[in-house]
Amino acid sequence: MIVINKASEMQAIAKSLQKQGKTIACVPTMGFLHEGHLSLISYAREKADVVITTLFVNPTQFGPSEDFSKYPRDFENDCKLAGENGADYLFAPNEQEMYPEEFNTNIHISGVTEVFEGAFRPIHFDGVALIVAKLFGCTIPDVAVFGQKDYQQTLVIKQMIHDLNMPIDIAVMPTVRMENGLAKSSRNKYLTEEQSVKANMIHKALLNGREAIEKGIRERQEIDYIMAKELSRDFDFRIQYIASAKADDLTLPDNFKPEDDIVLLAAVYLGNTRLIDNELVVA
Fold first, then answer.
1. Bridge partners for 262 per DSSP
2. Active-site residue (options: 34, 37, 108, 124)
3. From CA 22, how far away is CA 142, in angstroms rounded?
4. Is 162 a catalytic residue?
5. Which of 9, 86, 259, 265 is most buried, judging by how many CB atoms fall within 10 Å of its CB?
6. Domains of the chain
7. What is the pTM of this model?
């Protein structure tokens, strides 16, 4: 695996690969790789001739009181894991490379960004859209691979490539979980051993929502109540949201139709650690 730090060099390599008729898969990450990231790289390996994993902790998607400065980093181990799991290139620019002094562009996507994560983290998706657009410009992929754990993010990226006519296929891979059901996340590093065990209650709450839907419940507020009840019993959890929505656009009907795909979404603080998770219920 070859590590590239310069945007111009990465772009030149991608253009050269295109001229050779090679297909390119991009796997955007913020590093501190875990089994979830590695599953994306492995899938990308199956879908394209060349796999480019990107590693950049993006400051523009963090709010002023969020954890940008302490976000976990381990570049040496990330290089090892990415290479062992099928990445041909690791594109790892620094902040100055991505946002030089003369940088003056923003991207804002409406609609799907305005609820859930967007309501609690107002600048987050602007930063996500901006960095992903830049990474796509550098790697020029045919396909980009994301994880379902960041479900709302995948809808934002799909909206962006549709609106900006980017000829990129977006693949979304299932969430990888620990044995107790907790979604794999770089931020799990913040949890104590006791919290890591307790955090599985988030997934259990979402599964209660799935069970309710599968039993025929279609009233949105009833589904939401059933999920919240699981976590409200424990004062160690602070719920920002745990809610059901239409899976394609995150709209909030009073009652879901039988043919609606439904996504169950949660953002919960356990101690000082913010955890997100989701469960997709396909009609």
1. 246, 281
2. 37
3. 10
4. no
5. 265
6. 2-173 (3.40.50.620), 186-281 (3.30.1300.10)
7. 0.96
